[in-house]
């Protein structure tokens, strides 16, 4: 039977020390990547608190994606304020802050914004990012490219980038066409070879459901830069998957 | 300047008796003898044992910085990094352990753990067992290595089962008894 990779290191890893190591490298050794790792590690906590809020609000129409974004904002703020030397577990420190941010965020949100909905805003954000590409060449080709880029986005939504948090493979879905599934599989392969920041944007946006503003905050980049990285990643994926486009 | 052996023995006794003021006493000694690597190593061990890993690592590093040939401290610093998920850093810290003579238990343990990092399990077991056989100085370390061997055997027989270290393993390895024995590089 094939063994899982890095199992040797796993069996001697102590979860508390691994986490302490992330905090140490982030706070005292300036390793910003650890912030992202810690964020990903505590995303389930943020999501769980968003779900709890949603369950408690039975009268108002709220989109889950919005709650998640507020929870993620609260998580980011907690990451930046936490002192790992104080002996308090991060989850205990972050929990009230995340919940507070969800409550504040919902209070700030206007009805109109709420109606627009998280998913629609997210898709619009992607479209704006992709349309920002330099206009040149044949208009029909550009349209075809844009359509293909959007299709990549839909595929990414569907793949969950191969694995969801529970490890289930979500690739087989309503789009049962062989070509679609082959393209999805190829796409999954290609994502792992994207440049680091582009891969991070794709992972956080499509797999983790973060909007561009939250990713910008997480990676300490501007929102415009995240949009550029998104476009660049999708274009790179399109070039690598061109044979599917030409079928 | 190094502190008197009796002072060190007194603090170690306080640690064993869990008097509650052991860290305070140790810190006082460190203020007096800042360049004694044994004190920093002991401090690292205590902090690791009470769940203050960030400060523990800092103390271990200080011990190795003050005495690069303090082999047991170097081994434990690497082991601490490995258990913190920093395998590459652990290997780097362990580098000078290769200067110990052939058959030295620390060299064999490092060899075994290096195989472990690479998921080379039969070689891991062989090297760790050889290390245990040649280690007469440091029984707590042998217990740790036995625990690792047990885990490796479990994985080998059960296939891909995720798991993390038994907490008793890393705790015992860092506790007392480490300051004695032939832990110096040659």
Automatic annotation (TrEMBL), chain A:
SUPFAM superfamilies for this protein: Sigma2 domain of RNA polymerase sigma factors, Sigma3 and sigma4 domains of RNA polymerase sigma factors
Domain (RNA polymerase sigma-70 region) ranges: 38-106, 191-238
Residue spans crossing the bilayer: none
Gene Ontology MF annotations: DNA binding; sigma factor activity
GO biological process, one term: DNA-templated transcription initiation
InterPro entries registered for this protein in UniProt: RNA_pol_sigma-70_dom, RNA_pol_sigma70_r2, RNA_pol_sigma70_r4, RNA_pol_sigma_r2, RNA_pol_sigma_r3/r4-like
Record bears the keyword Hydrolase: no
Keyword terms: DNA-binding, Sigma factor, Transcription, Transcription regulation
CDD domains per record: Sigma70_r4 (cd06171)
The keyword DNA-binding is assigned to this record: yes
PANTHER family according to UniProt: SIGMA FACTOR F FLAGELLAR
Name of this chain's protein: RNA polymerase subunit sigma
From TrEMBL, chain B:
TPR repeats: 37-70
Keywords: TPR repeat
Gene3D superfamilies: Tetratricopeptide repeat domain
The name this protein goes by in its record: Uncharacterized protein
Organism expressing this protein natively: Novosphingobium fuchskuhlense
């Amino acid at each position: 039977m094939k063994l899982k990779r890095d199992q040797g290191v796993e069996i001697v890893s102590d979860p508390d020390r691994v986490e302490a190591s992330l905090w140490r490298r982030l706070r005292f050794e300036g390793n910003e990547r650890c912030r992202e790792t810690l964020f990903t590690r505590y995303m389930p906590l943020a999501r769980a608190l968003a779900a709890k809020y949603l369950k408690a609000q039975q009268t108002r129409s709220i989109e889950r994606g919005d709650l998640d974004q507020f929870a993620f904002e609260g998580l980011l703020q907690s990451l930046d304020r936490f002192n790992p030397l104080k002996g308090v577990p991060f989850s205990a420190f972050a929990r009230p802050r995340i919940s507070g941010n969800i409550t504040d965020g919902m209070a700030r949100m206007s009805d109109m914004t709420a109606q627009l909905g998280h998913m629609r805003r997210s898709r619009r954000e992607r479209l704006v990012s992709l349309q920002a590409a330099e206009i040149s060449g044949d208009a029909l080709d550009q349209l075809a490219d844009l359509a293909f880029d959007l299709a990549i986005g839909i595929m990414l939504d569907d793949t969950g980038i191969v694995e969801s948090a529970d490890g289930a493979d979500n690739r087989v879905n309503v789009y049962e066409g062989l070509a679609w599934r082959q393209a999805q599989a190829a796409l999954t392969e290609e994502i792992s070879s994207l440049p680091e920041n582009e891969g991070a944007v794709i992972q956080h946006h499509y797999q983790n459901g973060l909007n561009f503003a939250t990713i910008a905050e997480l990676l300490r980049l501007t929102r415009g830069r995240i949009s550029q990285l998104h476009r660049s990643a999708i274009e790179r994926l399109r070039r690598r998957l061109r044979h599917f486009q030409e079928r | 300047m190094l502190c008197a052996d009796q002072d060190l023995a007194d603090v170690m006794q306080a640690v064993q008796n869990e008097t509650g003021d052991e860290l305070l006493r140790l810190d006082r000694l460190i203020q007096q003898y800042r360049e004694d690597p044994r004190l920093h190593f002991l401090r690292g061990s205590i902090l690791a044992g009470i769940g203050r890993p960030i400060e523990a690592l800092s103390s271990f590093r200080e011990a190795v910085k003050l005495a690069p040939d303090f082999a047991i401290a170097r081994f434990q610093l690497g082991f601490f990094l490995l258990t913190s998920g920093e395998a590459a850093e652990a290997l780097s810290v362990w580098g000078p352990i290769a200067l110990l003579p052939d058959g030295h238990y620390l060299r064999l343990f490092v060899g075994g753990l290096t195989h472990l990092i690479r998921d080379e399990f039969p070689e891991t077991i062989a090297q760790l067992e050889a290390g245990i056989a040649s280690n007469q100085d440091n029984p707590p370390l042998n217990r740790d290595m036995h625990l690792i061997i047990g885990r490796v055997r479990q994985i080998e027989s059960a296939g891909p089962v995720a798991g993390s270290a038994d907490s008793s393993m890393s705790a015992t390895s860092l506790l007392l008894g480490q300051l004695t024995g032939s832990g110096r590089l040659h």
